[in-house]
Amino acid sequence: MAWLSLLGAVTCAVILAAWLAVVVTRRGSDGDGDDGGLGVRRSGPDPWPTDGGEPWWWPEFERDLRAYARAQERRRPHRTLRRP
């Protein structure tokens, strides 16, 4: 029966080592200054212009934000539960 305990311990050690290897390789740096993270890297919107102007998407963003804020003001507030 001692060999069964040894086999169980070895199996757990192998599974733990494999799990650690997966975690370390997925979180490793790719050399671009980012220290890790999971998922697909996506670029954001164009950076702000250096001449001090607004980016091309700014007027549309402000319009959408105003429409969203108006819609939120018209919403009926949810009922909250009161504690006794």
What does this structure look like?
This protein has 84 residues and is an all-alpha fold. Helices cover 51% and strands 0% of the residues. The chain contains two helices and no strands. The chain has helices spanning 2-27, 58-74. The longest helix has 26 residues, at 2-27. It is elongated and about 70 Å long.
Number of helices: 2
Q: Which stretches are low in confidence, meaning pLDDT under 50 for 5 or more residues running?
A: none
Roughly what fraction of the amino acids lie in strands?
Answer: under 5%
Biggest sheet descriptor: none
Element order: H for helix, E for strand:
HH
Mean of residue pLDDT values: 77
Radius of gyration: 27 Å
Shape: elongated
Structural class by helix and strand composition: mainly alpha
SSE map:
Layout: H1 2-27, H2 58-74
Brief sketch in words of this structure:
The chain has helices at residues 2-27, 58-74. It has 84 residues and is mainly α.
List descriptors.
single chain; mainly alpha; 2 helices
